[in-house]
From TrEMBL:
A UniProt-annotated Pfam family: C2
MF terms in GO: calcium-dependent phospholipid binding; metal ion binding
Source organism (scientific name): Mastacembelus armatus
InterPro entries with a match to the protein in the record: C2_dom, C2_domain_sf, C2B_Copine, Copine, Copine_C, VWF_A, vWFA_dom_sf
SMART domains in the record: C2 (SM00239), VWA (SM00327)
Domain C2: 67-190
Keywords annotated in UniProt: Calcium, Metal-binding, Repeat
Family per similarity comment: Belongs to the copine family.
Protein name: Copine Va
GO biological process: cellular response to calcium ion
Amino acid sequence: VLKRTEVIDNTLNPDFVRKYILDYFFEEKQNLRFDDFLGQVYCTLGEIVGSPASRLEKPLGGIPGKKCGTIILSAEELGNCRDYTTMQFCANKLDKKDFFGKSDPFMVFYRSNEDGTFTICHKTEVMKNTLNPVWQPFSIPVRALCNGDYDRTIKVEVYDWDRDGSHDFIGEFTTSYKELCRGQSQLNVYEVSGDKDRNPSQSTSLHYMNPYQMNAYAMALKAVGEIIQDYDSDKMFPALGFGAKLPPDGRVSHEFPLNGNIENPYCNGMQGILEAYHQSLKTVQLYGPTNFAPVVNHVARYAAAVQDGSQYFVLLIITDGVISDMAQTKEAIVNAAKLPMSIIIVGVGQAEFDAMVELDGDDVRISSRGKLAERDIVQFVPFRDYMDRTGNHVLSMARLAKDVLAEIPDQLISYMKSRGIKPNTDPPPAYSPALHSLLP
């Protein structure tokens, strides 16, 4: 057990006070489990952070045939404030709520969230049979009250305690930490796969579908995709292939939907992408040349339509490293560097990846026709560096995903800063239709 909440007696709708500080790493999959005898739920920390307003609601399970209710999990990035504050409260002439006595008052403190809701952060002890309580002093981190924002609203409610848990509401007030200190009244994600191993039924092909283990493409997609999918609210991903002859006429395409549906290329999560990928290997004929520019431009068209900071696009390209349109791809990347998007390239196989290193641009910023890319938006990793000697197993899926995704946060922030876009204090919509209304 890593952490445990307090016990709240006699209620079906508990609002837990105790909060926990977790170190959050964008590039790592951090599994969480919440359970007790009433039920349990599994999720990742990224799911919570990536949910609208960083607030995730999931049903409890674990008891067959029984509805166990739901659990609501919220997260907020902590400020750098390390201060603690000690406070003491008293009240005068509270309302009398008990029939045979006075009241048994206690206070509940809530901090306001960025989306306008409130989260409980402290409860005082109960003072028995009094209308003029003087509560004990208590100490609390300032960031628990207001996350270091001294002007953020703090709401305080006062209740009369009842043994059966149906506490009677006496009243409430709002304040801020600044007032208290005065002593008076707070990534759309695209997944793209492609190489030119002509026959996936041959064991020498990187696309070979071994019934007992995933091929290099599937392993790379799973390792990286399962991390980044937590940052897309609906988990529906357009998945494209490039470099194949398509049925029924054998037309060569460098921009086709893996699921075969031009009108709706979306796949449900990483499992849906893997299923579409495996099915496409049975219906298309892999064919050269290998052109990257069409898929880069494909995603760039979507990114160009949403430049207000509400969406950021990530293009994942999995390839054997061969590229036939280097000049056109460079131009596409230079143009895309002005847009809210990043490109991840995972190289599979034993080829030399000099061209991919050049596109990465870590040492020399990529340019086209004398024009430098505005930002570095490409990250390249060779998949073989993470494989064992047999080439059949990934030594560390977590390390692969971490290295691939490590540059994404800085790339996103660099775009926002270059456009003067500040974090939106309003909650994001539960579903953004922008991408889905722009189907080609």
